[in-house]
């Protein structure tokens, strides 16, 4: 991996960055497209696993367990990928902060594509025994490492090219990739569920995983044409470029890191609940599998649209007010969402998942810019990735398994689960109130520590 050094004759990239009049230039459109499409492909691969874990893996890789414990084990492998995400954020973030955003993104995409295709080729427990779930977990961890490095880089490629007053909207293109990838993954699985059950279980579920080869090829072609960010090019001749990003984040910005993680858990508890746990619960309660998956895909489209709107609103009114609005709304809707899922009908699930993902979009739209604005350039990839990926681990990675465990503990009642979920939103809201509004900050002069510029 190489990087280009700035010469004395080169104009100050920070001035180019701040003076850029709009996002509507050919180069900027290519950058935003790369951020969106790259993120879409990575999250297609990563969230495809989540859908398969909810409806098929328990029947193929955990066949010796009862239905409840098989679902718990399946969600446990899902959690393994989320556990790996912060490590991926730290590793890829280190190189992204030291040698550049672009090349690291290419490697993360290749890693994800290879792991996803291998899952599609993996023999089941009936074919090779206990080694099958072991290999499944290994490949899921590799997926987690790859997606851990993807989001931070994709988000920064857009944000660090964008003018100050449009950073939230630019950064949201990486966030838009998540619901778009989720919709594509869900529709791909929904299509193969139309096969007879024996064909779906024997080979049909593999098709969406193998399609990743095509998507990754397209993504690489687009990503290789994008230039490195001006803020990173400016960094190359500064002393900060020689520092260790992870050490800098942990020693000089620990407060922002912790607050960013806690704030992000609110986004991901919604994702874990309504797009993974609720799918398994609704199908297990008698709702039609294909109908549930189609409703989930429609909800991802709703979230996609809300992300665009909330990101734009955050550029005008600030990140904190928009995200707090989403958190409060989500807390109010916790029990209505759970009651709708409990109905065991496709329509009940559809309303629940659309409501949940819509509220998730309100929080998620500004979240990319929110995390980036917590850290200076020389540690921004590492810091933003660690905050985001750790939140995903705590929020979405463990939520389906925890939710299943809480329901089992409560004898099937959802009241205990709902109460714990509301408390998670309350803690996240308290965390965001302790952060500084980032939409007005100048990223070119920002320093490590207590928010100085």
UniProtKB/TrEMBL annotation:
Domain Major facilitator superfamily (MFS) profile residues, every copy: 31-436
Keyword terms, alphabetized: Cell membrane, Membrane, Transmembrane, Transmembrane helix, Transport
Residue ranges with Basic and acidic residues bias: 14-24
Domain of life: Bacteria
PROSITE patterns, A to Z: MFS, SUGAR_TRANSPORT_1
Protein's UniProt keywords contain RNA-binding: no
Sequence intervals crossing the membrane: 31-57, 69-92, 104-122, 128-148, 169-195, 207-226, 257-279, 291-310, 322-341, 347-374, 386-408, 414-434
Gene Ontology CC terms: plasma membrane
SUPFAM superfamilies per the UniProt record, alphabetical: MFS general substrate transporter
Protein name: Sugar phosphate permease
Organism from which the protein derives: Halopolyspora algeriensis
């Amino acid at each position: 991996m190489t990087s280009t050094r700035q010469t004395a004759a080169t104009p100050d990239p920070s001035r180019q960055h701040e003076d850029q009049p709009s996002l509507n230039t050919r180069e900027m459109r290519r950058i935003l497209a790369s951020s969106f499409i790259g993120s879409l492909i990575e999250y297609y691969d990563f969230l495809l696993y989540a859908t398969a874990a909810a409806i098929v893996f328990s029947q193929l890789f955990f066949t010796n367990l009862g239905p409840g414990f098989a679902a718990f084990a399946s969600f446990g492998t899902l959690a393994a990928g989320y556990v790996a995400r912060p490590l991926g954020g730290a590793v890829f973030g280190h190189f992204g902060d030291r040698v550049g955003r672009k090349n690291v993104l290419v490697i993360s995409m290749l890693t994800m594509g290879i792991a996803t295709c291998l899952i599609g080729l993996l023999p089941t427990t009936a074919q090779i025994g206990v080694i099958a779930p072991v290999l499944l977990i290994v490949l899921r961890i590799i997926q987690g490492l790859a997606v851990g490095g993807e989001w931070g880089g994709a988000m920064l490629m857009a944000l660090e090219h964008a003018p100050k007053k449009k950073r939230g909207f630019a950064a949201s293109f990486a966030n838009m990739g998540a619901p778009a990838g989720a919709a594509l993954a869900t529709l791909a699985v929904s299509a193969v569920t139309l096969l007879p059950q024996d064909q779906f279980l024997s080979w049909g579920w593999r098709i969406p995983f193998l399609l990743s080869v095509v998507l990754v090829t397209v993504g690489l072609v687009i990503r290789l044409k994008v230039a490195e960010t001006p803020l990173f090019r400016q960094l190359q001749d500064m002393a900060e470029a020689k520092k260790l990003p992870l050490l800098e984040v942990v020693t000089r910005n620990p407060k922002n890191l912790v607050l960013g993680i806690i704030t992000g858990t609110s986004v991901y508890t919604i994702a874990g609940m309504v797009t993974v746990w609720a799918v398994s619960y609704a199908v297990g309660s008698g709702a039609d599998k294909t109908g549930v998956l189609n409703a989930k895909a429609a909800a991802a489209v709703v979230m996609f649209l809300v992300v665009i709107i909330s990101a734009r609103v955050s550029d005008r009114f600030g990140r904190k007010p928009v995200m707090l609005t989403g958190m409060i709304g989500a807390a109010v809707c916790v029990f209505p969402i759970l009651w709708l899922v409990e109905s065991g009908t496709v329509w009940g699930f559809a309303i629940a998942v659309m409501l949940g993902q819509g509220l998730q979009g309100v929080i998620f739209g500004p979240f990319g810019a929110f995390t980036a604005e917590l850290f200076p350039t020389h540690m921004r990839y590492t810091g933003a990735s660690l905050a985001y990926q750790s939140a995903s681990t705590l929020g979405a990675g463990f939520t389906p398994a925890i939710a299943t465990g809480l329901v089992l503990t409560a004898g099937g009642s959802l009241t205990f689960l709902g109460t714990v979920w509301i408390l998670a939103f309350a803690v996240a809201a308290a965390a965001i109130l302790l952060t500084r509004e980032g939409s007005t900050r100048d990223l070119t002069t920002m320093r490590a520590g207590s928010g100085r510029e």
